[in-house]
Amino acid sequence: MILSALLTSVGINLGLCFLFFTFYSILRKQPGNLRVYAPRLVAERRVKRKNDFNFERLLPSAGWVKRAWEQSEEELLENSGLDGVVFMRVFTFSLKVFAIAAIIGVFILLPINFMGNQLVIDISDLPNKSLDSFSISNVNNGSNRLWVHFCAAYVFTGAVCYLLYYEYKMISLKRIACFYASQPKAHLFTVLVRGIPVTAGSSFSDSIDQFFKEYHPLTYLSHTVVRRTSKLQQLTNDAEKMYGTVAQIKSEEHTSQRSIYNGFFGLFGNRHRHMRTLEKRLEDMEDSMRLEQSSLPEKEVPAAFVSFKSQYGAAIALHIQQGVNPTEWVIEQAPEPDDVYWPFFSTSFFRRWICKLVVLVASAVLIVLFLGTVVIVQGLTHLEQLEKYFPFLKSILTIAFVSQVITGYLPSLILQSFLYFIPPIMKMLSSIQGYISMSGIQKSACGKMLWFTIWNIFFANVLSGTALSQVKLIFEPKKIPEILAEGVPAQASFFISYVVTSGWTSLSSELFQLFNLICSHLRRLFAKETEDLTTSPIPYESEIPRILFFVLLGITYFFLAPLILPFILVYFCMGYLIFRNQLLNVYAPKYETGGNYWPIVHNSTILSLVLMHIIAFGIFGLKVLPLASTLIIPLPILTLLFNEYCRKRFLPLFKAFPAECLIKKDREEHNDPRMGEFLEKLMSAYEDPVLKPTQYSRNADSQTSPLLQSREI
After folding, report:
1. 671: pLDDT confidence band, cut at 50, 70 and 90?
2. Angle between helices 311-319 and 659-670 (to 10 degrees)
3. How far apart are CA 226 and CA 347, in angstroms?
4. Domains in the chain: boundaries
């Protein structure tokens, strides 16, 4: 890619970002858009719609930037939990890392690269200069200037490791502090028990009660046996939809004088007859739900939530093998009650094992299928290939602006468009893999999405761009540094464009919320807007992998093509402000992992550093500087040793709280008068939501007790 193509891409994306920011600053002030740009504030009754016209509403402003910037970390912790704090610390950590990288790369390495003459380039024609002239490829082979790149790799690695240690330590301390400051949480008093043995003539409930009263007599409190409720859940969902339809029609009767529909299913015929039909269907659904509920005792599964009187008692049960047979009385930490993924319990052990195998195969197939998109994208970056396969485009491709748009903007846009469909697929695959919590599903999808992005966007582009015909060499370890050293610098221009297109524009579209804006106006046109408003948590499974991929690009291209660093720095500055605004106004947490996304961030950063070292080893070899190539070998070894130290020092705190903390917290809560009320609620906290009583219809005779509690329409 030439410099003018990059500038074209930057200009297009800057224009889009400016438009998105301008429209957002205007649209967010309109009363009708509060549900789009401030759904959290509306749901929490912290903002009211003002219909009075004000000319200031039509003028763009940057007041939202100030409010997002002024929000303290304590306020963020209170509003978004520790996960929200960790998410924002990923941005602050990245800003520190790439501020250091930009200083070294832009002011030291970039001039050295530009002053090289390994590549034959006409300096007088700057707009048509290849971006390779700003990369390490332009430094002469065997030049002593390469030692500057060698020293930069050591200095940068040391700085990143120091920042990683500092962040890991700070987040660990915050996790402990949040534990001490929090109210009693049900999941810390509860464990999930599976593989429950049962003798003839007894039930799972009897076995659990007998076992824990005998072996945990002082701490055992109660248990809740899990049942297969998938059919009941489907009936409940259908009843909810039917109830919503009935409620909407009844509300329309108060505002509309029309009593006759002209249509099928209520479009033709009498409105009241249609209402009676729907109500009869709702009553039939309730009868089916009661019938299904009566059969639930026969649908118990060998799993139960067992609650204890203290957090330390639950921890003892969790970390000690309960029976002689390790396949029985298998215990794991229970998730929060609102975080339980109930459909998981409807599957047997064999079915869960099959599902894991299916997910593994499906993930591999998805990666292979996506490679076709990568090959197409790489073809767009080489105009000579397009002219070869599509001769009729030759006259169009000779136009300077068209060629610049195709090579500088279109490839990244196509790749980003296809990537939007991947996170939901990964979340769906994780949901059938056997996780017992929605947060576990989201965390698993985050890991899958991260590896998918690294392989399909980074490695696939590198290999398809330079060594696709020699991809088999990747299985020869000695060839890996050489292949990466040849392929990674060659794709620097593509990834610079990718940062601008996928990074800047995706962040501004996150702020603008175009899809939600269109859906909101369509609902107002064709359906009545309800008073209830549900908010969604931040999609960590898509956002964290995207952020970490830009971290990987910045680290690996730090000394190869430092021109990428200013663009990455701009991305993290924009992301810091935009997501602080979104966490304040849009996203609301529904469950909490206690900052467990940080180990993913730490491991991904270590991977990026080691990848940079492997590429450096190959680069110095290709640049005929064997001594530097040899002296770089201790760097990945030291990095991995540092990672192992962090795993031993901090990771256990993210898996479970130590006995010191649990006992101290139990002692503090022992004399709390509210503890008795909490333990009483804990006994029923893990009941399946579909078993909670509710009634939708108004007709319930005395012979049939309602499945659901009465609720107003």
Report:
1. confident
2. 150
3. 12
4. 3-182+351-649, 186-335+673-691
